[in-house]
Design goal:
DNA Primase, Chain A; binds zinc ion; DNA primase DNAg catalytic core, N-terminal domain; alpha+beta; globular; Dna Topoisomerase Vi A Subunit, Chain: A, domain 2; 51% helix; disordered N terminus; 15 strands; 5 domains; 5-stranded antiparallel beta sheet; 4-stranded antiparallel beta sheet; 584 residues
């Protein structure tokens, strides 16, 4: 089928109407609500509020629903959006699948790529599941999962699987059904460097955790090494046309049915933490893909819950990320609780030993944001007055809160907890707010203005983190020595290192910060390319300057025809040529 842009748009409109026509609202609603016929309409107990006498009715002729008590109402799409906690397109896709109607390609630029990628990812997920179930080849991995206390039911629900050892298991099974480019773009395989070409599996001998979006499609994988010597321990799918880690929340598909608009979502860090909590019966749990919370993720949560419980494991690097997440969530009007985990525990170990009650225990002792700052801001010894620093952190958080009532409540709490003048706190927020002109928009946390070299280096590293696949192609054109800013240098060492997880706290903190402040929709490949050119040019200019200075020195000493001088003249000519080529 040939599709032009306008035809594609028309096709999408047709598709919505076709889905609407084949989705009878009474039939759809009656799958979750028990309905009784009353005259022309159907009535039942409203699924959107608690009630004992039915005030919820569905009108088959006009194809809409309405609740007289809570005023919920709308068409079949709206019903699925509200009851399944989905966006409009996701709801349409769900109804489309249910009605057996093919989902058209919609997004410009992703036209023609999305569906094959999702099909390839689903096929891979199915194979991984089969391999895990294989009596022989899957045994060790199953034993491992059993050792972690995971039941068969939860393994099936999360579609856990196994990537076999070896380089081509997946590539061989899928290459007949999917184009090479599709498999590469889906992040499942990579092309061999050697001239004979061919594909090899990205995931080998790993436990596979599919990254499932609401509605069921698999967008990518998180993969845990099964052999201790395999590094890194966790390997994620790269960013692909369907998987953007900054806008993905793990287990949202499983959690969304267990949330309500006034309720809470628990946010943890690891996939297995999430799965363990779900298995223990605590179902309102999601995780980020090992990154700090982003503005997009916060918006997704906003559609579902009013409160977020963050978990904190006490490590110094995590404290910074926690403050950032707190800032984003408070700015968006969430109630936030911070759950302190006992030292050495994570949610997985916690519920494995103590079940859901162990979680409820730590949840009850959770801190509000001000208490969190007090508990941990005071502990961090970075010099200066600890109480003052903690108060400054609270002021910073409060400045981001746009709702004046919420801001006031936060400050009153701080005034009590720190026994500090409310008037001064209010004034501090005013001053800070005026200094930054406006509260930072969500998704773009307040950032110190940086100019010049530091800015260039940070932006480039952000692009490296956001488009790792594109970075691989230029890894050898640059090196950590190209970075001047001390924290950028440390993060660069980490990113260029062959040892995963290399680098100290400074690198970890900067990485999380850069991930958190990466703007969605940026063309990272371009930023990478432009940044690499500027970094290389800067290096060449430095070398040129150094060569010129040395030449000058030698000439002052009368060594104008000295071999060293001649060599340096030649070198600086070459450098000048390279620089002018880069400037073109
Ligand atoms: Zn209602």
């Amino acid at each position: 089928m040939e599709i032009g842009t306008s035809a594609a748009a028309r096709g999408a409109d047709d598709w919505i109407e076709r889905v609407r026509a084949s989705s009878d609202i009474v039939e759809v609603v009656s799958q979750t609500v028990s309905l009784k016929r009353v005259g022309r309409n159907w009535v039942g107990l409203c699924p959107f509020h608690q009630e004992k006498t039915p005030s919820f009715s569905v009108h088959p002729e006009r194809q809409f629903f309405h609740c007289f008590s809570c005023k919920a109402g709308g068409d079949v799409f709206k019903f699925v959006q509200e009851s399944e906690k989905l966006g409009f397109l996701e709801a349409a896709e769900l109804l489309s699948r249910r009605a057996g109607i093919a989902i058209p390609e919609r997004r410009a630029g992703e036209r023609g790529t999305r569906t094959p990628l999702l099909e390839a990812l689903d096929a891979a997920s199915t194979l991984f599941e089969q391999w895990l179930g294989d009596p022989e080849r899957g045994r060790a991995a199953r034993d491992y999962l059993e050792g972690r206390g995971l039941s068969r039911e939860i393994i099936r629900e999360f579609r856990l699987g196994l990537a076999l050892p070896g380089w081509e298991n997946l590539a061989q099974r899928l290459h007949d059904r999917f184009a090479e480019d599709v498999l590469i773009q889906a992040g499942l395989v990579a092309r061999r460097d050697s001239s004979r070409g061919g594909l090899y599996d990205r995931f080998r001998h790993r436990l596979m955790v599919p990254l499932i979006a609401p509605g069921g499609p698999t967008l990518g994988f998180g993969a845990r090494a099964l052999a201790a010597e395999d590094q890194p321990k966790y390997l994620n799918s790269p960013e692909t046309p369907v998987y953007h880690k900054g806008s993905f929340l793990f287990a949202l598909e499983q959690a969304r049915r267990h949330t309500d608009p006034d309720g809470e979502m628990i946010l943890v860090e690891g996939y297995f933490d999430t799965i363990a909590l779900h298995q223990s019966g605590i179902r309102n749990v999601v995780a980020t893909s090992g990154t700090a919370l982003t503005g997009e993720q916060v918006k997704m949560l906003k559609r579902m819950v009013a409160r977020v419980a963050l978990t904190f494991d006490g490590d110094q690097a995590g404290q910074d990320a926690m403050m950032r997440s707190l800032g984003l969530l408070l700015a968006e009007g969430f109630d936030v609780a911070v759950v302190d985990l006992p030292s050495g525990e994570d949610p997985d170990t916690l519920v494995r030993r103590g079940g859901a009650n162990a979680w409820h225990g730590v949840r009850r002792r959770a801190a509000d944001p001000v208490e969190f700052v007090q508990r941990h801001g005071l502990r961090a010894a970075k010099g200066g007055d600890a109480r003052e620093r903690a108060l400054q952190l609270v002021v910073r958080l409060a400045t981001g809160v746009r709702d004046p009532v919420r801001r006031q409540v936060l400050l009153e709490r701080a005034s009590n907890v720190f026994d500090f003048s409310m008037a001064v706190l209010t004034r501090a927020v005013e001053v800070r707010g005026a200094g930054s002109h406006a509260a930072p928009p969500s998704g773009a946390p307040a950032r110190e203005t940086r100019t010049g070299e530091g800015h260039l280096e940070r932006e480039f590293l952000q692009a490296v983190l956001s488009a790792p696949h594109a970075f691989e192609g230029m890894r050898h054109d640059l090196s950590p020595e190209d970075f001047r800013d001390p924290s950028c240098l440390e993060l660069a060492r980490r990113l260029w290192s062959e040892t995963p997880g290399a680098g100290g706290d400074v690198a970890v903190v900067l990485e999380r910060e850069l991930m958190a402040t990466a703007r969605e929709g940026t063309e990272w490949e371009r930023v990478l390319e432009a940044g690499a050119r500027r970094l290389i040019r800067r290096r060449l200019e430095r070398q040129y300057k150094a060569a010129q200075q040395r030449i000058l020195q030698l000439q002052r000493q009368g060594l104008t025809t000295d071999p060293e001088t001649v060599r340096l003249l030649q070198e600086s000519q070459n450098l000048a040529r390279s620089i002018s080529e880069l400037n073109r």
